TrEMBL record:
Domain Aminotransferase class I/classII large span(s) in chain numbering: 49-393
Domain BioF2-like acetyltransferase: 632-773
InterPro entries named in the record: Acyl_CoA_acyltransferase, Aminotransferase_I/II_large, AON_synthase_class-II, BioF2-like_GNAT_dom, PyrdxlP-dep_Trfase, PyrdxlP-dep_Trfase_major, PyrdxlP-dep_Trfase_small
A Pfam family reported for this protein in Swiss-Prot or TrEMBL: Aminotran_1_2
Source species, domain of life: Bacteria
Any one GO molecular function term: pyridoxal phosphate binding
Keyword Disulfide bond in annotation: no
A biological process term (GO) from this entry: biotin biosynthetic process
Cofactor(s) the protein requires to work: pyridoxal 5'-phosphate
UniProt keywords, alphabetically: Aminotransferase, Pyridoxal phosphate, Transferase
Name of this protein: Aminotransferase class I/II-fold pyridoxal phosphate-dependent enzyme
């Protein structure tokens, strides 16, 4: 079967960023003829600046400015030579001073991204392994991924989850020489820090463990000579720790610095470090400014600057502690994160604060999970006490209004960030005239109404859902027990605006991942069957495919009805502690896409849906005329001539032996079809199909002359649901792969399905997902589909991204 298309991560990020840009909180331009650091001019308004990463304000220090100008006048705007040949005359002085700072061998790099790209492939050798903290900076992850081409294994752990780290170390220690754990010293979004004491204990316990620490956000504002958070904890840098600092951000200049006390490793990086060899060197102005900053760092003045910043940080912490604002991480770093939960709430609050005169950053996917959006406030020496107090007052005033504007609550936000809840009073309904019907069985839903709204769309008419409820209950294995949840939202006239159903079930998290990822995960699952599986609250069910929601978009309140539905499933998510929410099988719709994103979902591409929308021909002799010229040739060459090889049986009540045969054929396909990786369905399902009037089996048997005298052995079967005389749905397929290529079994099953639907006078066929190329050739219309996903964190997605080409 053809492989399915998968979502491009960059496309998802582009949509998220585009929405944020349209909301006026991203890709802004600073204005004005000068800049002091205390205020920043945006949209013709001067705002107090609480978004800088220059925490000590050194970028505005007159000494650095003068040094930079002198550097330009003496050596030009750039020094256009590779540093491998000859360095700018100022480089030697800078390297000497940075070496004094760290009291260790250092390497200056153009920036941290190029530095990681140069250093990581140099220090990580073939025979080593890498473990990434899943929140380590993107630049580290990107550089590590380069090593996949050298077959260096890359694993990932949940953020600062040291038990998980130790398990990975134990797993890798017998196979690899060194194990590199890569993490940040201070994390740039929440301002939390690496557990360095515990990490060093692990290093002592496992000599193979080496640490690669990016401390660019810990630089200057703390530590001896401003060498950062990591060295403030370690005092000296051991040989098994490689440290990255920065000469930009708080340091006030440009560039980055790698610190390495291992002599051979240092020599290797220094002599040839890939991008460090071939990329341009720092401009004279940057080198000169960095020298001036290094002089400040080497003097007692650095501690005065650190203390001044600490006073401001302490003030902000003290003021926040007197409020109910959801500060995600409390410590003494200059980075603060106030959770808003949904992106739309974040947009609202950022815009409110800008109108009030404050500039803050928005923390958004992929830097944080979509539902962990928030405002990132950074404190610097530029900020004065009066504007710090005013910012807190403004947040206290505007935060509840932003929540109210976007129909959310403080406790919803706190739950998203696992913070203590306030036990607030329930808020009033969004629209008083709405009525929300929620039930747990289709038997509590009016059959006529449900079939009118949802009945002609697949295996989820009223009878089909009752069948599924009976199948997926009281089973031995957890993945075969599903909870069903039905939601119908009506207006004041009791007219339905929205109807849908959800199931709560165990999914493989790689269900829609690339085949290469599923192959690796299935190897792990041979010993750990439930590895990387999660309880999912998903629209529709793992069994069904199609348009799982009825939505009247002509109704003036359709968006609010959708919000009511999301509120209800959020309640269910909390009740079940679900790891994922999935809204699936939508066609591309910009309005829905924006609505779901702003409510904390990201869009992912699903396999295409394949449907024959109109079986208008009266006989199968007319069918070929419905095909394109190319498909007609395919039909005459690869389908029609093979039909005579088979005996075709339309079986509505197979016996036990036949059910066993059909189930074996189904399992063959399920094992092969990693393009849509699902748990195998229970045999009980197929037994109950045989007893249900709406199900039938199209079985094909090779005639004896084509099968070495054997007969009565099916080589293919299609499991088909008859939906209210409207839609014929071949829900699943089974095949014997020993015969598929020689006898065109799959194509024959598609054709026989069309013949059967035509004979029974159905109006359309829903062929479902995957193998769209083959289905198109028999006349199916290909309909792109998307899903909207909300995960508790990004770990699984990032892990599978690491695995994709590993």
């Amino acid at each position: 079967m053809a492989k399915i298309k998968h979502n491009n991560f960059l496309d998802t990020v582009n949509e998220v960023f585009t929405d944020a840009k349209e909301q006026g909180v991203l890709h802004l331009y600073a204005e004005g003829d000068s800049f002091t650091g205390r205020k920043i001019r945006v949209k013709q308004k001067d705002l107090f600046h609480f978004g800088t990463t220059g925490y000590l304000g050194l970028e505005q220090d007159e000494r650095l400015k003068k040094a930079a100008m002198d550097g330009v006048y003496k050596y030009g705007t750039q020094f256009p030579l590779s540093k491998s040949y000859i360095s700018n005359p100022l480089y030697a002085k800078l390297e000497e001073k940075i070496t004094q700072l760290y009291n260790a061998p250092i390497i200056i790099t153009k920036n941290s991204t190029l530095g990681h790209l140069g250093v990581i492939p140099s220090v990580v050798e073939d025979g080593d392994a890498i473990i990434l903290d899943h929140q380590v900076h993107w630049s580290v992850q990107s550089a590590a991924n380069v090593l996949k081409t050298r077959s260096v294994p890359i694993e990932m752990i949940r953020h600062s989850h040291l038990d998980m780290l130790e398990d990975k170390i134990k797993k890798l220690s017998s196979k690899y020489k060194k194990i590199w754990y890569m993490a940040d010293g201070v994390y740039s979004m929440y301002g939390d820090v690496a557990p360095l004491d515990e990490l060093m204990e692990l290093c002592n316990k496992y000599p193979q463990l080496h640490l690669y620490l990016d401390d660019v956000h810990g630089m200057s504002w703390t530590g001896k000579h401003g060498t950062g958070y990591v060295l403030s904890k370690l005092d000296e840098l051991p040989e098994n720790v490689l440290l990255f600092g920065t000469l930009s951000k708080t340091f006030g200049a440009s560039g980055a610095v790698a610190v390495c006390t291992h002599k051979k490793r240092y020599h290797k990086i220094k002599t040839f470090g890939g991008p460090l060899t071939f990329s341009a060197q720092l401009e004279p102005a940057s080198v000169a400014a960095a020298i001036a900053s290094a002089d400040i760092h080497l003097s007692p003045e650095i501690y005065m600057l650190q203390n001044e910043l600490l006073e401001r940080i302490t003030l902000f912490n003290t003021l926040l502690s007197k409020t109910d604002l959801p500060l995600v991480e409390q410590n003494n770093s200059p980075v603060f994160y106030i959770g808003t939960g949904m992106p739309v709430t974040g947009y609202n609050l950022v815009n409110r604060l800008m109108k009030e005169g404050f500039f803050v950053n928005l923390g958004i996917f992929p830097a944080v999970p979509v539902k962990n959006t928030g405002i990132r406030v950074t404190i610097s020496r530029h900020n004065q006490a009066e504007e710090i107090k005013s910012l807190v007052d403004a947040m206290v005033y505007h935060y509840p209004k932003a929540l109210e504007d976007t129909y959310t609550t403080p406790d919803k936000v706190r739950i998203a960030f696992k913070l203590p809840i306030l036990n607030e009073k329930p808020k009033k309904k969004i629209v008083d005239e709405f009525s929300v019907q929620y039930v747990k069985t289709i038997q509590d839903v009016d059959k006529i109404e449900w079939n009118k709204l949802m009945g002609k769309k697949g295996v989820f008419d009223w009878d089909g859902l009752l069948f599924l409820e009976n199948v997926f209950t009281k089973n031995e294995r957890s993945e075969n027990n599903w909870d069903f949840h039905y939601i119908i939202i009506r207006d004041e006239a009791h007219i339905p605006i929205l109807a849908t159903f959800f199931t709560y079930a165990l999914w493989k998290e790689d269900m829609l991942a690339p085949v290469s990822v599923s192959i690796k995960l299935e190897e792990t699952r041979k010993n750990d069957p439930y590895y990387l599986t999660s309880n999912v609250l998903g629209m529709g069910s793992p069994f069904t495919e199609g348009e799982h929601v009825y939505l009247d978009k002509s109704h003036p309140y359709w968006k609010l009805a959708m919000k009511q539905m999301l509120d209800k499933i959020e309640e269910l998510e909390l009740e079940f502690n679900s790891n994922w929410l999935v809204l699936r099988d939508f066609e591309n719709d910009e309005e829905l896409s924006q609505l779901f994103h702003q409510q904390g979902f990201i869009k992912t591409v699903m396999p295409d849906s394949c449907q024959i929308l109109d079986l208008y021909w009266k006989t199968m002799d007319e069918y070929p005329e419905s095909l394109s010229t190319r498909s007609r040739k395919h039909f005459k060459k690869d389908i029609l001539p093979y039909e005579e090889r088979f005996n075709i049986v339309h079986n509505v009540s197979p016996n036990d032996t036949q059910i066993d045969q059909f189930y074996e054929l189904y399992n063959n396909v399920n094992k092969h079809n990693l393009a849509l990786n699902m748990f195998p369905l229970p045999k009980k399902l197929f037994t109950m199909m045989a007893q249900h009037p709406n199900w039938e089996f199209i079985a094909i048997y090779l005639k004896e002359e084509f099968n070495k005298g054997k007969s009565h052995i099916p080589v293919g079967v299609m499991f088909c649901y008859k939906n209210l005389g409207a839609t014929y749905t071949p829900a699943f397929i089974g095949m014997d792969y020993n015969y598929t290529d020689e006898h065109q079994v799959y194509r024959q099953l598609l054709y026989q399905t069309i013949k059967r639907a035509t004979k029974l006078k159905f109006k359309k066929i829903d062929f479902g997902m995957t193998a769209s190329f083959e289905k198109k050739k028999v006349g199916a219309t290909i309909i792109p589909k998307v899903a909207y996903i909300q995960a508790k964190d990004n770990y699984s997605m990032e892990l599978m991204g690491v695995m994709e080409t590993n």
